[in-house]
């Protein structure tokens, strides 16, 4: 039986402040899948993202990503390439958009060993191809302050994908954008995923976004977080803006909304932080 690309098994995480963020959480994601995490604010969605990125270690339980257990001694496996995109695109203001997109190629193996030789040729062409794919052809020489928020978020997606990551982690990447720009970027992200097929884990509060982009939607309980429900999204691809307003999507979004409302109502009182552990 094939092992999942991402696996959280009986994972609990308590912060040093005493906050119990996750409690006995299980999640399995196959390679190349696109999974969205939804749930009440503060339920641990971003915590799961940080565990998968190996930015946090579980208090108990096991997190395995690409055959590696988080926090375990290094295994003789190829280094996993991860792409990250957040709500704030955080571009470096002294670099051009093209140079910002190429930053992962400068720091991530095996590309960094070739960066000096290829930064003005093959790597610049790679960045330009992605920029064109998201509608930013001709903007590579601009500085970040010359672009709108939506354009910067497009460039942020390019930066997350320029080094061909096996895993793409997205934490509310479109949350600060207007609805029209958000829908345009849904189409751009879907096209990039269909073309490259990285494993994607998306954290979002937008249920229509989850239904439009993901193959599966995992609903989390209020803190402490657990996976309450794992729903498959069977809509054919490519999905369009019209698809996102289809009756099937409306029905799915309403069911998810009711499930999240139930989770909020059933939230357990948080225990005292006395004797809390990391």
Structural features, described:
The protein is α/β, with parallel strands linked by helices and 278 residues long. The protein is globular, with a radius of gyration of 19 Å. The longest helix has 19 residues, at 247-265. The chain contains 10 helices and 10 strands. The protein has a 6-stranded mixed β-sheet, sandwiched between helices. Strands 2-1-4-5 form a 4-stranded antiparallel β-sheet, with helices on one face. Helices cover 34% and strands 21% of the residues.
List keywords for this structure.
six-stranded mixed sheet; disordered C terminus; alpha/beta; 34% helix; 278 residues; four-stranded antiparallel sheet; single chain; 10 helices; 10 strands
């Amino acid at each position: 039986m094939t092992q999942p690309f991402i696996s959280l098994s009986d994972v609990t995480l308590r912060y040093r402040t005493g906050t119990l963020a996750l409690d006995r959480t299980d999640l399995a994601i196959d390679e190349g899948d696109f999974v969205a995490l939804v749930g009440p604010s503060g339920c641990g969605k971003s915590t799961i993202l940080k565990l998968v990125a190996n930015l946090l270690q579980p208090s108990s339980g096991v997190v395995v990503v690409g055959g590696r257990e988080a926090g375990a001694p290094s295994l003789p496996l190829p280094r996993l390439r991860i792409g990250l995109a957040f709500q704030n695109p955080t571009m470096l203001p002294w670099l051009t958009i093209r140079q910002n997109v190429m930053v992962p190629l400068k720091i991530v193996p095996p590309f960094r060993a070739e960066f000096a030789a290829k930064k003005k040729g093959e790597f610049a062409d790679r960045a330009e191809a992605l920029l064109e794919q998201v509608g930013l052809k001709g903007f590579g020489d601009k500085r970040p302050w010359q672009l709108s928020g939506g354009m910067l978020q497009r460039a942020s997606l390019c930066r997350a994908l320029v080094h061909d990551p096996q895993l793409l982690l997205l934490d509310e990447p479109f949350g600060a954008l207007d609805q029209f720009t958000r829908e345009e970027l849904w189409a751009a992200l879907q096209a990039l995923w269909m073309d490259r097929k990285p494993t994607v884990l998306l954290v979002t509060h937008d249920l229509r976004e989850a239904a439009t982009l993901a193959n599966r939607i995992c609903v989390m309980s209020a803190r402490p977080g657990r996976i309450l429900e794992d729903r498959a999204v069977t809509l054919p691809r490519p999905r369009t803006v019209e698809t996102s307003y289809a009756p099937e999507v409306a029905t799915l979004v309403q069911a998810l909304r009711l499930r999240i409302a139930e989770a909020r109502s059933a939230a357990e009182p948080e225990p005292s932080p006395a004797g809390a552990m990391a």
